[in-house]
Design a protein that fits this description.
Helix 10 (about 350-360) packs across helix 11. This protein has about 1050 residues and is an alpha+beta fold. The strands form eight sheets. A six-stranded mixed beta sheet has the order 15-18-19-12-20-21, with helices on both faces. The chain has a five-stranded mixed beta sheet with strand order 2-1-3-4-7, with helices on both faces. It has a four-stranded antiparallel beta sheet with strand order 6-5-8-9. The two termini are about 60 Å apart. Among the domains are: about 1-145; about 345-415, no CATH class; about 605-660 and about 690-800 and about 960-1025, no CATH class; about 805-930.
Length: about 1050
């Protein structure tokens, strides 16, 4: 309250006091005491005397003016004008509750010392009431409450804002008038007035016993304002708490009442350590319940058990009779949870965070209605002015800590849960923000909600707002449950402390919650006076002491109302609706993140520009750049695949782990995990399409790759991008920290380089882990190997120059290998068999010859010429060997003719191509220069291999021209650079098979992600290790 307002109030009090001059000076002295009482509640005690002097000066001034007036009319007129002027001056600065207090004090002023309020005083009171916009009904209620000097003989009728607290000895069996509360040993009657609009409570006591209000002595009949958490004690009677009074007025504002009952719950961690020891309690709607305890006392664990996140090993948690772990679907929408951590999408605005959270709860609500609901919540929590501001993060603050907390609460409040759990809602906030936040929660509780907050050593103002208090001790023991103010008295009593009733300061009414832990954790002092680490009472002793008392909250004997009445009109959207909301929310968050947006827009084009420009090699002495002479094309293909894998992987590696806290909150909505993942996949696909297309366009253009190859390159790179992106989502869901994810990324990327088949050939790996005939099993699991092989094979086979010639060159390569290498090896072994030799080696050679010749009978991979039936393969006799030699001569002629025919057809095709190019103003040389690449041809034909045929496991392996070899396995398994893959009896293009494998890898990774297989395995192993 400002200086100018206080001075104006002193003048207003002085005017009203001087209006009763004819009643005597004694009354003026009594009224001065009322002013002093008012100041004691508004300002610091050391300032009270100063403002009393100001009041005295104004009082004497108005007395002098009154004596100077000749007529009462002139005095009344001038006083009324001054009253109006003063009210106009202070009206804009006084809050509504302060206006009620001022008006109540003015009424008390007028009736001091047993005098009745005269007409002049009533006129002044009416003037002030009108100036403060207090209704006539409210003024009438205040007059009925504050004006009587003594207890009326007949109770007031029709007063819904008045509560009479009557001695239980005066209990009647008939009907009572108005609200009545019975209390033992009252020694009179007490009135409590509730100014509904102002939200304040006023007290008057008509009795003979000593009255303590908030720990301070009070005089009977006087009017007292009750602060939050205040206790009222009459004589030696049990205290009446502020929360009790709220409860007497609150039921009229409640709808369906919620009731949470906890019976014998106990929770044990996976390592066997007890998180919560058996406990029980019961709370109903309209209560703000605080949970206090030292670190490790199990506060957050208890909250998790109560909100349905952690199933207890024993006991029950019931909401209106429904056990939430046995019938979770019935409790859906009733429970809300606000974590200690931020659960906000940092990049979205305040409005967007709340809107999309609400959209996941109100699937069928029209857009306009939902927007109105969001706006209402924002206004009620004081967030309207910042609705368009992005929330940021704690390190990049856009909104204050208090605003972040309120927004987190708003995310739950918009669903209108009947029970709300908050974990450390005031952590990191200033004392003022903390008080404002808890005041909001208190208002919500008064609307019928049951609110639990974990709070650590709150200040007095917050502590007194609590309706009930749970105190936990180390190890999860419940050592107190009851009224917060009474807790101080309880622990003082159990700890044998003096001053059992001195819980509140006699001067300011504050309490010191720290006393609770000072008593609970009071250490033992040794014989030398040193403080030890041992406590006087262990947690189990405090728990046993509390269990021995009758302080457990009793369970309701009446059956609670059905839980169906607690569920509001929340209806989560269907799968497609959730997918739409998740997709839009995720997309907006990424778009709002400028760094993310710029990197994703420029990363792929810049990488393509840098890579293609660096490897665009040509001989400076030649006529210029041609694709044919660029020795770096294989490097470009490999690096394009690696870039696609790395960018895709790193782009999604944080996506799920960043949302983990939000997903935990949304788990209370039972939203679809599949819809959430599909939304991530949709956005990842959109980004991958853009990045892969941009990379392919820029990179291929700089490299001079023919435009017809663009869609084939793009499809492969897109598949790699998406496969890596899905892998990124998988590791994002499997690991607990971002640091672990980024440490893992090199372990995923480096094998893509080493096992791609180009940097280190598969047949040059450790012989114990590889063979020259096939790709090792670990190579089959490498995405880069499938993608690179598809690009290399397709680039070689399907470029405009090579495509018409490929079939003939394949025949020529087969014929050349068979005639010059394969037949020579077989002939040499036949000659060896005719000479004296080792029988064991002879049988091995004979077996090799049999296997090779029988395989050659296949017309798809060999000559198709059948062996003579007379050959006995059981023994290499000279007759059998000669028959084989004769067959080899037939094969030699066959392959010679095959090579000649292939060469002739190839030459004929080249002449046709030359004529076609010449007709179109070009030449075959130019076509080859722009489409063919010598380095890639040398690589896929293995021209650098010195051994064109090798012996492996007594089999001859064709060790050159892999691009022309047909695979033999019917299950898609083939050598590296195979032109086709065999499925059954069909040969399929390597490009499309490899593309299918890449797409299948996306499906496999998505399935692992959807089923959360790595997470389950790690969780199972951690449990087994314990």
């Amino acid at each position: 309250m400002s200086e100018s307002v206080l001075q104006a109030l002193m003048q207003l009090f002085a005017i009203v006091a001087s209006a009763a001059l004819e009643d005597g000076e004694g009354r003026g002295r009594v009224q001065r005491n009322t002013v002093e009482q008012f100041l004691n509640q508004q300002i610091a005690l050391n300032q009270v005397e100063r403002y009393l002097e100001i009041y005295d000066a104004f009082y004497q001034q108005h007395l002098a003016r009154q004596q100077a007036k000749r007529t009462s009319y002139k005095h009344t007129s001038s006083s009324s004008v001054r009253v109006l002027r003063i009210c106009a001056q202070i009206n804009e600065e006084l809050q509504l509750n302060q206006k009620f207090i001022v008006l109540a004090r003015l009424i008390e002023f007028a009736r001091q010392s047993g005098h009745r309020i005269n007409s002049l005083e009533r006129d002044f009171i009416d003037t002030v009431s009108d100036s403060f916009y207090i209704t006539r009904q409210e003024l009438g209620e205040l007059m009925d409450f504050a004006a009587p000097e003594e207890l009326p003989q007949a109770p007031l009728k029709g007063q819904t804002s008045l509560l009479r607290i009557v001695d239980s000895t005066a209990r009647t069996h008939g009907s009572t008038v108005g609200k009545v509360l019975y209390h033992e040993h009252l020694g009179g009657e007490m009135w409590v007035y509730h100014a509904t609009r102002a939200g304040i409570y006023m007290l008057r006591y008509f009795g003979r016993l000593q009255l303590l209000v908030g720990g301070r002595a009070a005089s009977p009949c006087n009017l007292y304002m009750l602060s939050h958490g205040a206790s009222i004690r009459v004589g030696n009677s049990a205290p009446i708490f502020y929360t009790t009074l709220e409860g007497e007025f609150a039921p009229e504002r409640f709808g369906q009442q919620v009731c949470l009952e906890v019976k014998g719950i106990a929770y044990q961690f996976a390592d066997g350590k007890m998180g919560i020891h058996p406990m029980g309690f019961s709370h109903t709607g309209g209560q703000l319940v605080g949970i206090m305890g030292s670190s490790g006392a199990g506060k957050s664990t208890l909250l998790s058990v109560l909100n349905g996140s952690a199933r207890p090993q024993q006991g029950e948690v019931r909401i209106n009779g429904v056990e939430i772990y046995q019938a979770p679907e019935q409790a859906e929408g009733v429970i809300g949870y606000v974590s200690q951590d931020d659960l906000l999408v940092e990049e979205l605005s305040v409005f967007q965070n709340l809107y999309y959270s609400a959209r996941l709860s109100f699937g069928g609500m029209p857009h306009e209605e939902l927007v109105a609901r969001v706006q209402e919540i924002l206004i009620s929590l004081g967030l309207w002015e910042i609705r368009h501001m992005p929330v940021g993060n704690p390190l990049d603050k856009r909104i204050s800590g208090g605003q972040r907390k309120r927004l987190n609460i708003a995310l739950e409040l918009i669903r209108e849960p009947s029970i709300l759990f908050l974990d450390e809602p005031t952590s990191g906030l200033s004392s003022r923000d903390s008080e404002n936040l808890v005041a909001i929660l208190k208002d919500l509780a008064l609307k019928g909600k049951l609110i639990y907050i974990v709070i650590h050593q709150p200040p007095s103002a917050i502590f007194k707002m609590l309706d009930r208090l749970l105190v936990l001790d180390t190890g999860g023991y419940l050592i107190y449950e009851g009224n917060p103010i009474e807790a101080l008295e309880y622990f003082q009593e159990q700890g044998d402390y003096v001053g059992l009733h001195d819980c509140e300061c006699a001067l300011c009414g504050n309490v010191t919650p720290e006393q609770l832990f000072d008593i609970i954790e009071n250490p033992v002092v040794d014989e030398y006076g040193n403080v030890t680490r041992q406590r006087r009472r262990q947690p189990e002793e405090w728990a046993a002491c509390f269990a021995a008392t009758s302080r457990y909250s009793s369970y309701s004997k009446e059956p609670p109302p059905p839980i169906e009445g607690l569920r509001h009109s929340t209806r989560r959207p269907g799968w497609l609706g959730q997918l739409r909301v998740f997709t839009v929310r995720d997309a907006l968050g990424k778009i709002a993140n400028r760094q993310y947006l710029i990197i994703n827009l420029l990363e792929a084009p810049l990488m393509a520009l840098l890579l293609a420009f660096l490897v665009r090699y040509f001989d400076a002495s030649s006529g210029g750049y041609t694709l044919q002479d660029n020795v770096n094309l294989p490097v470009y293909l490999l690096m394009a695949v690696v870039v696609a894998f790395f960018v895709g992987l790193s782009g999604t590696a944080e996506d799920i782990i960043r949302d983990r806290k939000i997903r935990k909150r949304e788990s209370f909505l039972n939203l679809s995990w599949g819809a959430y993942l599909s939304a991530k996949m949709v956005n990842m696909t959109i980004v991958s399409i853009y990045q892969s297309l941009a990379f392919t366009l820029i990179g291929n253009t700089i490299m001079g790759i023919e435009p017809a190859m663009l869609p084939y390159y793009w499809l492969i790179l897109l598949a790699v991008w998406m496969s890596a992106g899905t892998l990124g989502l998988l590791i994002s869901d499997s690991f607990k920290t971002v640091v672990a994810i980024y440490i893992l990324i090199p372990f995923l990327v480096i094998p893509q380089l080493i096992l791609s088949g180009i940097i280190v050939k598969f047949d040059k790996l450790n012989p114990e882990l590889s063979n020259p005939a096939d790709i090792p099993w670990y190579g089959e699991a490498i995405v880069a190997r499938w993608a690179y092989e598809a690009l290399a094979v397709h680039q070689f086979k399907q470029n405009a120059y090579q495509a018409p010639l490929y079939g003939y060159e394949q025949v020529m390569a087969l014929a050349d290998y068979k005639r010059n290498y394969w037949l020579r090896a077989l002939t040499s072994r036949c000659n060896t068999l005719l000479a004296p030799n080792d029988s064991i080696q002879a049988m091995a050679d004979w077996e090799l010859i049999r296997h090779e010749l029988q395989a050659d009978e296949n017309p798809e991979t060999g000559s198709g010429i059948k062996l003579e039936k007379e050959i006995d393969w059981h023994a290499p006799t000279p007759e059998n060997v000669k028959r084989v030699q004769h067959h080899l001569q037939l094969l030699s002629g066959f392959y010679a003719r095959l090579y000649t025919n292939g060469s002739r057809l190839r030459d004929s095709t080249i002449r046709i191509l030359q004529e076609y190019e010449a007709a179109h103003g070009s030449s075959l040389t130019q076509l080859k220069a722009s489409c063919y690449n010598t380095a890639l041809a040398r690589l896929v034909r293995a021209n650098d291999e010195t051994d064109r045929i090798v012996l492996y496991h007594n089999r001859l392996v064709w060790h050159c021209d892999p691009i022309f070899q047909l695979p033999t396995s019917p299950w898609l398994k083939a050598h590296f650079y195979a032109p086709y893959k065999r499925l059954g009896t069909r040969y399929l293009s390597t490009y499309w098979v490899n593309l299918g494998v890449l797409i299948a890898s996306i499906g496999i990774l998505y399935t692992l992600l959807y089923l959360r297989v790595p997470k389950r395995i790690s969780r199972k192993k951690s449990v087994e290790s314990i």
